[in-house]
Amino acid sequence: MVEKGRHIPGGTHCGESGKWKRGKAHHNAKVDENIVRKIRKDKEKMSYSQLKDKYGLSTTCLFKIVHKKTWKFVMQEVKAPCSQD
Prior knowledge:
Elements (H helix, E strand, L loop, with lengths): L32 H10 L5 H8 L3 H8 L19
């Protein structure tokens, strides 16, 4: 592999940084960060088969999103506490 230049940044199909693109910037992304948040929130009250019908994704893809095997960098939005004056 060293002869092919795959050991250095820019020597791979990952680009100049040598890292995979994340999120919607990846060429093969089917969802974006907002949809990932919705899927994780919906999983609290829906089954995988219902999610599959709603979002058009495979059960495996949904499982990996819910259990943060993929899209692990996407955090749930946290609401700021209301201050009472």
